[in-house]
Amino acid sequence: MNSAVPVSDTAITRPEHISEEEWALRIKLAHCYHLVDFFGWTETIFNHISARLPGPANQYLVNPFGLNYTEVTPANLLKVDLEGNKVEPSPYDANPAGFALHSAIHGARADIHCVVHTHTNAVSAIAMKKAGFSHHNFYGAQLYGRIGYHAFEGITLFAEEKGRMLESLGDKHILVLRNHGIAVGEADIERTFFLLWTVQRAAEIQVTSGALGGDDVELKEEISQKCADLTQMLIRDSGFAVKFFTAMVRKMHAERGPSW
Description:
By secondary structure, this protein is an alpha+beta fold.
């Protein structure tokens, strides 16, 4: 993080067997879990956030299954391979429902280093609708051209669904799992969290707007495309996502205290 260091980052010691680079990634990922809880986007002990580890080994970090998101720490995150096998000892196991989804994306998309899966009320409601996400509100417009849709096949436990999920995702960064929820992925944890926040806001506004009487003001496709392009330029070419992420961590710590 290149902003103010959250107070809890200075209160823990890096284990000797973990490199500084991996430890920094673990801290950010653990903060991401706590932020998802802070914003109320958790599904008790279910769902998952993963982050690709640097290097050629195709390994990633994921939460121990059975822990609340607030119980996730940099030290207890699991290191697993693309099949979900632990590559370091841990008393915890991973959620098998996460492997098919996360390993598929991490194994196929070198441009995606973090994946978040949620199914909040608003997001799941949109996933139920044939039309999917609208691009006529401020946040929905920023998602124009970035969303793929995947038909529901049941709980994502089986490797044979991976190819179909990847085909549905294509070159996009948001996968709507029909009748279920979403998966979002970006080049790092900060950008992924900002994308998740944008998707959540788009869903909330769409659901609220749909509950009101009267017609919506619809945007032209070129305006939605312009919004999406400008947002991508901002995220790609500046430290915007890092500033947003670290500000949210500071906000969380100001209200809750240190994370661990």
